[in-house]
Amino acid sequence: MKTDATIRWMTPGRAAADAPGLLALMHDLAAFEGWPDLLSITAAEIARRVSASPPALQAVLAEAPGGDLIGFATVFAIPYAYAMNPSLELEMLFVTEPWRAQGVGRALMDAVLDHARAGGFERVEWNVLADNARAQAFYESLDGAEKAGWRRWGLTV
């Protein structure tokens, strides 16, 4: 399903402008997953991390036609000792309720997978809440698979 949202990576040049919107979405995710008291990052720190060289935070954003941020994904590299190429960890993926099942999550994941392929990553891996059947069905639709004995998912790229 194609979405009307614009999908773009956060850049140092837009970090200060994007950071408050990303932080608001992080608050929504934290409330949804039940960990709002753990969210301690500030918009200024998000902008600093995105602008660092190399970036200490990589985020892909979904922007509605009117300019509001409606979803995001954050990723980071994991250089495993046993593999020639690192894995890319999908730390967070979130789409606001009105935009769910509208292709936004898929577009964000496509951007993450494209990033992984272009960067030479071996896999993309992520966690999903054990009781989030909707997210599990979404990841299965991408051919992601749960690792046996774990609530950890991965997709070879």
Structure description:
With 157 residues, the protein is α+β, with helices and mostly antiparallel strands. The chain is 33% helix and 26% strand. It has a seven-stranded mixed β-sheet, with helices on both faces. Helix 1 (15-33) crosses helix 2. The protein is globular and about 40 Å long. The two termini are 21 Å apart. The mean pLDDT is 90.
Mean pLDDT: 90
- Note the total helix count: 4
CATH homology group: Gcn5-related N-acetyltransferase (GNAT)
**CATH fold title:** Aminopeptidase
**Beginning-to-end CA distance, first to last residue:** 21 Å
Second-tier CATH architecture: 3-Layer(aba) Sandwich
The helix content, as a percent range, equals: 25-40%
Order of helices and strands: EHHEEEHEHEE
- Strand segment tally: 7
Report the radius of gyration as a whole number of Å.
15 Å
| Total of domains | 1
Low-confidence stretches: none
Placed side by side, the strands forming the largest sheet appear as 1-2-3-4-5-7-6
CATH class: Alpha Beta
- The class by helix and strand makeup works out as alpha+beta
Query: Which percent band covers the strand fraction?
Result: 25-35%
Please state the overall shape, judged from the principal axes of the Cα atoms. globular
Summarize the main sheet: 7 strands, mixed
